[in-house]
Amino acid sequence: MIRTLAGYVREFKKDSILTPVFICFEVLFEVIIPLLLAAIIDNGLGKGDMGYVVKMGILMLVVSMLSLASGALSARYGARASAGFAKNLRQGIFHKIQEFSFSNIDKFSTAGLVTRLTTDVTNIQNAYMMILRMFVRAPIMMVCSLGMTIYLSPKLSMIFLVALVFLAVILYFIMTRAFPAFQRVFKNYDNLNSSVQENLTAIRAVKAYVREDYEIDKFHKATGSLKKQFIDAEKLVVLNMPVMQFAMYSCILLLSWLGAKSIVAGSMTTGQLMSLFNYSAQILMSLMMVAMVFVMVSMAKSSADRVSEVLSEECDLVNPENPVMKVKDGSIVFEDVDFMYNKEKETATLSGFNLEIQSGETVGILGGTGSGKTSFVQLIPRLYDVKKGSVKVGGVDVREYDIEVLRDAVAMVLQKNVLFSGTIKENLKWGNEQATDEEMKKACEQAQADEFIKTFPMGYDTRIEQGGTNVSGGQKQRLCIARALLKKPKILILDDSTSAVDTKTDALIQEAFKKEIPDTTKLIIAQRISSIEQADKIIILDDGKINAIGTHEELLASNYIYQEVYESQKKGGDEDGR
User: Torsion angle, CA of 181/186/191/196, rounded to 10 degrees?
Assistant: First the structure.
């Protein structure tokens, strides 16, 4: 985990090195100051030599300024190093997510990935800053100050040695129990973010069904659970402060009592005792810093594990050593394909799948919920890999293609249509960044989108809100189809992508496909038979297997499932027409 994260320090290594270097200078100057103070008290004020006092006072001022400058530089470089490290981590996670296959993404929830990019990286950033500064400063200060107390009074220095052992034992006890508690806390963060994300995404449904109270109650339960777990974790961590204060005040009392006796006995000067008080403060402050670092590190350890998990995740889909760089045509062949989303499941989503589709054919796909329609088409652009058998496009196994080349040849309009914030033109250019205005207009005409775009005051420069909330479901579907057409693909897959448009518009889209892209293989998943009855062949899927293949007329004459769907839709259409 440490090795994984350390690789993201990269260009900020210099800042990461300079931070502790200047910390060392800061500590060195701070350790000198109590010695100068002892000299002023014993050799200046004690002997009435004001010249000596002034000389040493100026020296103290210079040393203090050098300490301040070193501290300021260490803070500057530390801030740059930690902020830069966090930036690299966020970029690394985001880039890694872009490489993930669908199965990798399925492993991490969306809310979990958001938490890792935000809360977890912030925790790591804060911990890295504290490690560079406090974790370097505290031990060096402690060792130097302890060394000076031994130099001034070996006997009294034993007070601090005992305190250090006592605090080390207590800190170990606290940290070993706090770490698992913080792991549970950050896992619960994912659940909370998931609840918020779901609510905001579906806010219209929440309001339509008047479920605000239910959602508020669900959110309160999630925050209540997070609060309880945080309190349980903090109960352990807050023990640091009373234990530290107990050790600090015990050391001060013992030092005052034994130091006074030493002055009376003549074995120690007043200046030396004052120096010991300063060194004791430095030692105890260093101990407090160490405790704070351990608290932050224990929190950051959980975050670091979660971030490292994403960065170390190996993508399931990788390019072969010498990938095929050209897709010849849109022919598709499935040979004895078995597929399942969860590799540990015994039941396959698709089983014994054999199918051959000629380039340029229009193929309708019909089946009930869970029959494997979406799973079937997702194997074609290699969004998932088969468990057994092979899927061939253009006569070549999809696993032999360069992934980018393959997916550029396959345009897929997903079941859940997604538009991004920006203009209509910017959304369309997802299909082809170099597309001209004429090409965009033509694609929109084929998708029957140009007609409604022209009614907008800004036309193709009309801004689409996040998620496409300012356009209707049918308009969103047609824009997504136009975007796919701009890729000029060899295979076009429509996953129930005309469900929100009326039958007349649907027919016009199918007619445009037939006329404008005759050489493109078209796979159309539909619930309405009217959307696929003109297809060259129709595939009926049932429970992950091919139940039947044929034309509309053939299936209507021979297939029970097709007959049943046709009769139910015909009956529904007759009733609507009355």
Answer: 130
* pLDDT above 80: residue 123: yes
Least confident of 338-352, 407-421, 469-483: 338-352
> What distances in angstroms separate CA 437 from CA 424, 459, 489, 513, one per listed residue?
11, 12, 19, 20
Residue 409 one-letter amino acid: A
Which is it for the CA torsion 523, 529, 533, 536, positive or negative? positive
Q: Which amino acid is at 370?
A: G
The pTM score is 0.69
Q: Of 85-94, 253-262, 368-377, 440-449, where does mean pLDDT reach its minimum? A: 253-262
DSSP state of 462: P
Tell me the CA distances in angstroms from 127 to 65, 122, 184, 312, one per residue in order.
28, 9, 19, 21
Strand order in the sheet with 521-525: 410-413, 491-495, 521-525, 362-367, 537-542, 545-550
The pLDDT, as a whole number, for residue 574 is 53
- Structural contact between residues 241 and 170, judged by C-beta atoms closer than 8 angstroms: no
Contact 322, 402 (CB under 8 A): no
Question: DSSP E strands: which ranges in 2-133?
Answer: none
CA distance 181 to 161: 31
pLDDT digits (tens, 9 = 90+) for 545-563: 889 999 999 999 999 989 9
With cut-offs at 50, 70 and 90, classify the pLDDT of residue 577: very low
pLDDT average, residue stretch 44-53: 76
DSSP string, 228-239: HHHHHHHHHHTT
Looking at 369-500, list the stretches that DSSP marks H as alpha helix, in order from N- to C-terminal side.
Answer: 373-378, 403-409, 424-428, 437-446, 450-453, 473-485
Q: For residue 573, what pLDDT is reported?
A: 56
Q: Give the whole-angstrom CA distance, residue 441 versus residue 420.
A: 19
344-353, long-range: CB < 8 A, 24+ apart: 348/387, 348/544, 349/375, 349/544, 350/375, 350/376, 350/379, 350/544, 350/545, 351/544, 351/545, 352/545, 353/389, 353/544, 353/545, 353/546
Residues 6+ apart with CB under 8 A from 422: 463, 464
Q: Containing H/E element for 48?
A: none
pLDDT band at 572, cuts 50/70/90?
low
Scored b (16 or more CB within 10 A) or e, 80-105 reads: bbbebbbebbbebbeebbeebbebbe
Taking CB atoms within 8 Å and a gap of at least 24, the contacts of 557-564 are 561/366, 562/366, 562/529, 562/538
In this structure, how many other beta carbons lie within 10 angstroms of the beta carbon of residue 219? 14
Give just the sign of the alpha carbon dihedral 47, 48, 53, 55: negative
Closest CA to 66 of 38, 32, 35, 100: 32
Place 276 in a pLDDT band, splitting at 50, 70 and 90.
confident
Render pLDDT for 221-270 as a digit per residue (tens, 0 to 9): 878 877 887 787 777 777 777 877 787 778 878 878 887 877 777 777 77
The set of residues, in sequence order, having a beta carbon less than 8 Å from that of 58 and lying 6+ positions away, is none
pLDDT digits (tens, 9 = 90+) for 368-389: 888 888 888 989 999 888 888 9
Calpha distance 45→142 (Å, rounded): 29
